[in-house]
Design brief:
The chain has ten helices and no strands. With about 180 residues, the chain is mostly helical. The protein has one domain.
Length: about 180
């Protein structure tokens, strides 16, 4: 992260390196280790701090606006404390669905250790609402105005309407 901050790039380029290269590597390395809620929380905190530093955001920028997907009004930075447990739960469910005919795999998945692991993963996701980041953003004190603006057609008309002409006309210079 420190090397990323020090790179002589524009903030949006640093952000795309963070989201497209660095965070997927961290996410992949967490799949084979014993993850805890504290570890994921501390990684998310470091991630948010460096994202704010990279994009020159105010320190009081809500975390939900950083981690919410772009389509929900956020920056789309991966929240590891949500993504890792969701991925692991999906893998367990997919394994159970694919191995429905195999009694040995089904017996292994029905063991108390796997049930305890699944319960621990669900507890890790207990803080995250079913509505996802959209619900968190809508409840945020600082983001209510952003949601109101996104619903107002006049405030986003510059996105919906195609410009009538070229903004910058090519100038030719004669000698």
């Amino acid at each position: 992260m420190q090397r990323l901050v020090a790179l002589p790039l524009k903030p949006i380029q640093k952000s795309s390196l963070l989201k497209g290269f660095l965070l997927p590597r961290i996410l992949h390395s967490l799949m084979g280790t014993r993850v805890t809620k504290d570890l994921l929380g501390s990684l998310d905190k470091i991630n948010r701090q460096y994202t704010k530093k990279i994009l020159h955001l105010h320190l009081h920028t809500p975390n939900e606006l950083i981690q919410a997907p772009v389509r929900e009004g956020g920056l789309g930075v991966c929240e590891l404390s949500v993504s890792v447990p969701q991925i692991l739960l999906r893998r367990l469910d997919g394994l159970r669905d694919r191995a429905a005919d195999d009694p040995i795999v089904m017996a292994m998945l029905a063991s108390g250790r796997i049930d305890g692991f699944r319960t621990r993963l669900r507890k890790m996701l207990a803080h995250f609402p079913e509505g996802g980041h959209k619900q968190l953003v809508e409840q945020g004190v600082f983001s209510r105005e952003l949601n109101a603006a996104s619903q107002d057609s006049s405030s986003r008309s510059w996105i919906d309407a195609k410009p009538a002409g070229s903004i910058c006309k090519r100038q030719t210079f004669h000698r």
